[in-house]
Specification:
With 83 residues, the chain is mainly alpha-helical. It is 58% helix and 10% strand. A two-stranded antiparallel sheet has the order 1-2. The relative contact order is 0.16.
Length: 83
Amino acid sequence: MAYREMSDVTRIQYLRSDITIPSTVYEVAANIYAAYLGTEEAKSKTDKELMTKAVLDAIELAVTTEQILESAGTRGESGNINK
């Protein structure tokens, strides 16, 4: 997983608007955690382990999204990542 310094000023830039990472990560982590609860993995892990996994997955998703959007922006593309 990519290392990312967490701070209150970290943001993902999407076109001309900013998306604050903490609130986005919290929401995505909650959705991922809810999805994990319905899996076989939930039977073998504690709630804390599943929450930690969900948060780490949400952070990784945010970092990957930021990298893709930044890369698309530097190429002058409209966000088509399938090239």
